[in-house]
Design brief:
single chain, 173 residues, mainly alpha, 47% helix, 0% strand, flat
Length: 173
């Protein structure tokens, strides 16, 4: 006799249970106060950065904790730079680049140039293309002249005759 199937609500979830614990929120915030990155926090929690991102997506309280940890880390790193400004040998360029890499929303230089016309209007452009016909064959010149006449009369070109390439090369005189 076969074992009866369990109801969906009585089945155990697939996969192993998450290693996430609510106390990770406090650990992350505390580490952020010391300038820790997501990599540092993942290492302290004995997990990977990918898992940190998964927990942030799955547990809203952990997402808020990581946001606070990142803010506190930015404050810590900014304070380190302020203290070091008066220290002989402090490499402010390295510190600035580090801040831009760690906290791009706040520290990255955004260089952009926006061009506009008078009073902020779009720039008007008149683009003209010059076509050299010096190397067109007699047949190509005749076809071009015919097409230009049709366009000048305001008619549409229905068909374009394809060059089979047998009687001339198209570009040769």
């Amino acid at each position: 006799m076969a074992t009866p199937r369990k109801k969906p609500e009585d089945r155990l979830p697939l996969g192993r249970p998450s290693a996430y614990k609510p106390e990770f929120c406090e650990i992350a915030i505390a580490m952020g106060q010391d300038g820790a990155s997501k990599v540092d926090i993942a290492d302290a929690l004995d997990t990977t950065v990918k898992t940190i991102y998964n927990w942030m997506a799955q547990y809203p309280e952990f997402l808020r904790a990581m946001e606070r940890a990142e803010q506190k880390a930015e404050v810590w790193w900014a304070a380190q730079g302020k203290k070091a400004l008066w220290t002989p040998g402090f490499n402010s360029s390295v510190w600035s680049r580090s801040m831009a890499a760690r906290f791009p929303k706040s520290w990255r230089e955004n260089k952009s140039v926006e061009l506009s016309g008078k009073d902020g209007a779009p720039i008007e452009m008149d683009v003209t293309t010059t076509l050299s016909i010096d190397h067109l064959s007699a047949r190509a010149l005749d076809a071009l002249e015919e097409a230009l006449e049709i366009i000048a009369e305001g008619e549409e070109i229905d068909e374009v005759e394809e060059d089979d390439g047998e009687d001339d090369e198209g570009l040769a005189n």
